[in-house]
Amino acid sequence: MLLAVIILASLAYFNRSPNAKPNGFARKWLTDWIEGQDQKTIPAPLVRICGVSGDRIYTAGQNPQYLMSFDRKLEQKGVLTLNIPLTQKLQAANGLIVDSPEVYLFANNLSTLYKAGIDQPGIDSIKLGKGIFTRSIRLEKDLAVIRGFDDDPMRQVFKTVDLRNGLISHRNPLVDDADGGFATDGLLNYDSTYHRILYLQYYQNVFFCLDTNLNLLYQGHTIDTTRYNPVRIKKLKNDYEQKLVPVTPRFPIIRNSFASNGLLYVISELKADNESPENFRHNSVVDIYRVPDGRYTGSFYIPNIGEDNIQSLFIDSGILIALYKKHIATFRLRMSG
User: Omega of the bond prior to 101 within 30 degrees of 0, cis?
Assistant: First the structure.
């Protein structure tokens, strides 16, 4: 039986210039939303913030075997090594979440969760259903949501999974597509204040809000006007596996997102008509939406550090942590309700 391998996470995005002409929307600016605190140059390339527990900030690079930690003053505190064999499939697509004292590594192409303790040498693994998955988010201690495949290698389904035994309890396809999920690829977020799951599409101005049983509560829209952004794919086969790859450039309209305290923060890739090219070039713009109803509330800038812009963000106790390609910085949220 052929194994369908989705390589969404390993493919580089192709760039165009969607901001060369007006995009047809305007932003409401929140000028006093954040206040800069600390910033440091990071000692190695990092791509994601995996969690904040106590006084530690946990980050990771492309290799999921290693976690680098910082204190709240952004001083490096050490490197945690996960005793997991690194394979091409593991490195191609994975998710890392730290909730001290536990570390969760979602191995997408292996349909597996690895679970370890920060101060313990052992590691456990459990299969999460029978199909590979492309997106994952942990909800509570023993519950997660994944987006992945069942029997149809061309359609993805959202599933709630018990992290103790790998059993699936709820399913929802949410969107009907037959391209392996490329056109509707996106980001999963979870807001623990309202216990809401949010899924934002990369290529259209659509996001979905679900409860923890995967019931759709509403479909929202980001403030931009991108309603059509086609993605074409093709199949590549050999004797052992089947791969789906895009054959046209993909143009994401969002870079990253995070949900906290009833608000959804979205880093947008699109310039509004009421902002200057210079401001857009020297900052990353964050749009804010209310989790209960999806209503847009305003936008603010996170400044670049030189030519370095933000790749990942995390919010904890009123502090926004921004991970750049070469720096890490913190900002106090002056207005977070």
Answer: yes
pLDDT per residue as tens digits for the range 150-199:
888 888 999 999 999 999 999 999 987 777 788 899 999 999 999 999 99
Instruction: Please report where in the chains the tokens 């191609």 appear, as a residue.
Output: 92
Sign of CA dihedral 144, 180, 175, 311: positive
Secondary structure (3-state) at 279 = helix
pTM: 0.90
CB atoms within 10 A of CB 14: 11
Q: Strand 3-6 vs strand 241-246: parallel, antiparallel, or unpaired? A: parallel
Give the three-class secondary structure for 83: coil
Domains in the chain (CATH in brackets) are 3-333 (2.120.10.30)
User: Which letter, b or e, does each residue of 62-97 get, where b requires 16 or more Cβ atoms within 10 Å of its Cβ?
Assistant: eebbbbbbbebebeeeeebebebeeeebbbbbbbbb
Output the six-digit token pair for 124.
């456990």
Listed as own residue / partner, the contacts of 240-244 with beta carbons closer than 8 Å and 24 or more positions apart are 240/2, 240/3, 241/2, 241/3, 241/4, 241/5, 242/2, 242/3, 242/4, 242/5, 242/153, 243/4, 243/5, 243/6, 243/7, 244/4, 244/5, 244/6, 244/7, 244/179, 244/180, 244/182
Quote the tokens at residue 66. 């290693």
Q: What's 108's DSSP letter?
A: G
